[in-house]
Amino acid sequence: MNPANQKLEKEITDRKQAEEALREREEFFRHLVEGVRDYAIFMLDPEGRIASWNAGAQRIKGYRAEEIIGQHFSRFYPPEDVASGKPEQELKTTVAEGRYEEEGWRVRKDGTWFWANVVITPVRDETGQLRGFAKVTRDITERRWAEEALRRANDRLKETNAELESFTYTISHDLRAPLRAMQGFADALQEDYADRLDPTGRDYTRRIAAAARRMDTLIQDLLSYSRLSRADLQLETVALASVTEEARAQLEADLRNRKAQVTVDEPLPAVKGHAATLVQIVANLMANAIKFVAPEVTPQVKIWAQEQKGWVRLCVKDNGIGIAPEHRERIFRVFERLHGADVYPGTGIGLAIVRKGMERMGGRAGVESEVGQGSQFWIELPKAEER
Ligand code: ADP
Q1: Chain segment 120-173, per-residue pLDDT in tens
Q2: How far does residue 304's CA lie from ligand 1's centre (Å)?
Q3: Residue having the nearest C-alpha atom to atom 12 of ligand 1
Q4: What is the pLDDT of residue 386?
Q5: Of 231, 217, 212, which Cα lies nearest the Cα of 166?
Q6: What residues flank ligand 1, with Cβ below 6 Å?
Q7: Total-model pTM
Q8: Residue with the nearest Cα to atom 16 of ligand 1?
Q9: Ligand 1 centre from 348 Cα, in Å?
Q10: Half-sphere exposure of 29 (CA within 13 A, CB side)
Q11: Is 285 within 8 Å of 316 (Cβ atoms)?
Q12: Going from the N-terminus, what domains does the chain have, and what CATH number goes with each?
């Protein structure tokens, strides 16, 4: 054989081998696709007629290959979509944009509908000529129902919450009127009838008045908690220095009575928050810091701020009785108190307001403490640029 012939022969064998390898690869992918059961994967010709079918397509849509090949793919669409020309439009978009994806209703052979995720891609030959489309369809009906159920449950929860909050609000309001009457008449008894009552009678009236006052505080605290849950808090730049100053001013009388020493480490940065809510929160923490201190001890409160990664943590540290580890979370819930009102008066709502207020401002609150070693309460908010 002359060299030219030899070369030709080699070229022919190489080409045959390459074609064989290509055929084997195609065969391999065809088998792979045919066996997939979770996805309907099939080909359309350029006019939208079905050209191939896999196990997933049969499982999801209900047709066997021999029933469906050659049919137009619009039969998978609900009648309104067919009428409006949606299937053809999808193919046009696929050609124009190189890909089409959507979620929508599709129809099975037995007429039932399923919610589908659909991806269509154009298939072209080496010259760029459109040969057809590859279509991958997934049945995501269950996911859709689950999402819908979740959405409905969420809506119901929001409704119940709103109802509950408005219920607390109304009831607290309505409770105050009869309470005022009790308080007023108990005071009147004490003032106008004191000489006609014996010491026991006077003691009883005093107790009625005191209990009524306590209940009034409780209702007022509940009202502020409920107001905080409902209010729309507009966040703005707030200087922590003025917040602590205002909280301190609000507690002026208590601080003086307890001879408390409050030191603030200046300067304090500014945060993104709601000024009035922050004042209430810091005042609650300061009030606790001077209240939960052994009677013979002079309260010492230290306030400072530390910054980390765009967040500001404001700490309020006391030299009080401290909190055991098992109670450190529950004290932030409404009505949770660790002591009787006779030892340390209070309503158990102060820290619930702290936690709720911080959450409403997108921040956090917490405590570090050891029994007998004092407590360090902290709140955290994003740092703001000083105005
Ligand atoms: P209140 O102060 O009205 O009792 P709070 O919600 O402010 O209600 O606090 C809940 C409980 O947490 C308090 O009753 C107290 O037992 C505990 N507590 C709060 N602050 C401190 C503190 N600084 N030191 C020790 N215990 C505290």
Answers
A1: 999 999 899 999 999 999 999 999 999 999 999 999 988 888 887 778 778 877
A2: 20
A3: 331
A4: 60
A5: 231
A6: 284, 288-289, 292, 318, 320-321, 323, 331, 336-339, 346-352, 375
A7: 0.63
A8: 338
A9: 7
A10: 8
A11: yes
A12: 36-139 (3.30.450.20), 142-230 (1.10.287), 234-387 (3.30.565.10)
